[in-house]
Structure formats: structure tokens, C-alpha cells
Design goal:
Elements (H helix, E strand, L loop, with lengths): L1 E2 L13 E5 L8 H16 L3 E4 L5 H22 L5 E6 H6 L4 H4 L3 E5 L2 H8 L4 E4 L4 H15 L8 E4 L6 H12 L9 E3 L2 H14 L6 H21 L7 H14 L2 H51 L1
Parallel strand pairs: 1-5, 2-3, 2-6, 3-4, 4-5, 6-7, 7-8
Helix pairs in contact: 1-2, 1-8, 8-9, 9-11
């Protein structure tokens, strides 16, 4: 057990740290827990460390189990004796947990005195990822956006793990806030499944540059979010590596002709637009289902009102 002041220098370790915020409940669709477990597997296979709110239930428990199972199977291959998980919680919450066999496996537990300090400690990770969850996840998303946008906390990559289109309402709302002039646009890196997530992780591992200021971090995140669909499109099977695509892009940009550089730029733009159109159709389909639910609810409410008249 560690007190929070004892890991001030833990970011100096060679393993990138991924903070995952998600629900302590599993959700109604089994796909949420399945993909959360896959997220944990990806984190471990990349040799990343998981920073999370110390839970054995719901989405968070599934992520942690994915990390732990992979570590127990071939942990030395990726971690070389380093603990794969840091559990971060408050002293009050820690007292509420029933000690079980899984939580006993997490050797590195950090206790903070307040929820505010818990959030700050979680934000020390190198990559921040949001998975499906409830109001607690929403609170951390809003807190982290404000803290990074206002410069209180060092800017870093934000990944939205958009399992089953879970975040589409929130992403649209954040766009409205920006378009209405109430907030800067946050350059989220949005991934829709575990295959896209692995590509994003690999790119972040290769291109993770410590930024000196918020503007530089924003620019780096925007560039990655813009180029990511091109990697999705090019990586059609396991024989094609992210590194191969990066090498091709560097070769074209450094030694290619003007026409070849323009063709690459057009391909990147095309892939980005196709992905945005794909997500737009998905959001329209979900909005249509939402509208049908609202229409049905209105019909039932009107019927109830007639009975009372």
C-alpha cells in the first residue's frame, strides 16, 4: 500500500501509463464488458500500465482483469518485474471494498485523502481513456477537459472508447458547446472497436512526444485524430504493421514528388471524411431510434392523460 506522495516520480518509468475511466457497473449489453476486457488485454500486450479507480466490478473490473490475465500469462515478456496495475482510490472508498482474491493481486494501491486529489493522481498518466460508464465517468470526463483546457494539468492524449456508439450523445454535445462559443474544441481520439484501439495505442507508443505547452499538445492530438482513419483503412490485415504505414508516409513526405505528396494528403483526407460520414450515419440511425422511443413515450403519456380527464 502506498500513500499518494510516494509515486510522484512514477511517470519516469519506461512503461506508458494509461488512465481508464469507466463504469463500476457492467451495463445492459454484454458487449461493454467484453470490449472492456479486450481493452485490458491491449493495454497489457502493449506493455502499458493501467492506472484506474481500484474496482473489481463492471467495466473497470473487466479492464483490470484483462490486464491481469494477460500479465499472469506472459507478464515478464512485457513488464520485466514491474506491476501492471496501479489502483488509485480514496481512503473512504477503500474501506468499503470487500477484499477478494482479485483485488489482492493488485500490489500497487495509492490512497488519497479526497476525490479531487484522486482525480489529479489519475491524471498523471500519459494517456487518458474514457470507456462507457455512469455519472462518475461523466464527472471525470468534464473535470479532465476543464483542467486540461484551462492549463491546470498538463495536456495529454484523450481517447474515447466508443463501444457500441455509447458516447455519440456526448460527442455531439461537446461539438455544440464548441460551435456555440462556450468551449474550445477538445481533439478527442475516437475509436469504435478494439482493432482501432490497438492502432491508436501503437501510434501513441511510437509518437508519444512530451509537449511543452497546451497548444502543442492540442496540435499533436488533432493531427493524430485526423490521420488515424488512414491507418484504419490501410491496415487491412495482420501482415500490415502500423510501423510500415508510418515508414511509407515518411518516405513520401521526405523523398516523394509533389504529385506523390499530394496524393498521400488526398488519401488521408479521404479516409478521414469517410470515417466521419460512417459515424454520422451511425449517429443518424441512433437518433432515429431515440426519436421512435420518444414518440412511443409521448403516445403513452397522452393516453394516460386522457384517462385522467
Amino acid at each position: 500500500m502506498e500513500k499518494d506522495q510516494n509515486i510522484e516520480n512514477s511517470n519516469e518509468e519506461p512503461h506508458l501509463r494509461v488512465c481508464v475511466s469507466g463504469g463500476s457497473r457492467p451495463g445492459n449489453d454484454p458487449v461493454y464488458e467484453e470490449e472492456a476486457y479486450n481493452l485490458g488485454v491491449k493495454i497489457a500486450k502493449m506493455g502499458f500500465r493501467l492506472d484506474y479507480g481500484f474496482s473489481d466490478t463492471g467495466i473497470m473490473g473487466s479492464v483490470a482483469r484483462g490486464v491481469m490475465d494477460t500479465w499472469e500469462k506472459d507478464g515478464e515478456k512485457h513488464y520485466h518485474g514491474v506491476d501492471p496495475i496501479v489502483g488509485i482510490t480514496t481512503q473512504e472508498y477503500f474501506k468499503l471494498y470487500k477484499t477478494d482474491e482479485f483485488l489482492k493481486k493488485i500490489n500497487n494501491v495509492v490512497l488519497t485523502d479526497t476525490l479531487e486529489n484522486r482525480k489529479k493522481k489519475l491524471f498523471e498518466a500519459d494517456i487518458i481513456l474514457f470507456a462507457p460508464g455512469g455519472v462518475g465517468t461523466l464527472d471525470e470526463l468534464a473535470y479532465d477537459c476543464v483542467a486540461m483546457q484551462d492549463g491546470f494539468i498538463q495536456a495529454k492524449p484523450f481517447i474515447i472508447y466508443n463501444i457500441n456508439g455509447f458516447f455519440y450523445h456526448i460527442l455531439e454535445y461537446l461539438k455544440v458547446l464548441s460551435a456555440s462559443g462556450f468551449a474550445e474544441r477538445i481533439p478527442f481520439i475516437v475509436v469504435d472497436n478494439s482493432e482501432e484501439l490497438e492502432i491508436a495505442f501503437r501510434l501513441l507508443k511510437i509518437k508519444n512526444n512530451k509537449c511543452s505547452n497546451t497548444q502543442e499538445a492540442y496540435a499533436q492530438a488533432r493531427q493524430l485524430a485526423y490521420e488515424l482513419p488512414y491507418f484504419f483503412k490501410r491496415k487491412i490485415d495482420s501482415s500490415i504493421w502500423v510501423e510500415h504505414i508510418l515508414d511509407y508516409m515518411r518516405l513520401i513526405n521526405e523523398r516523394g514528388s509533389t504529385e506523390e505528396r499530394q496524393e498521400l494528403a488526398n488519401d488521408i483526407e479521404q479516409a478521414y471524411l469517410e470515417k466521419e460520414i460512417e459515424r454520422m450515419y451511425d449517429r443518424l440511425a441512433r437518433t432515429g431510434r431515440d426519436t421512435a422511443v420518444v414518440s412511443d413515450k409521448l403516445t403513452r403519456l397522452k393516453k394516460r392523460r386522457k384517462k385522467t380527464i
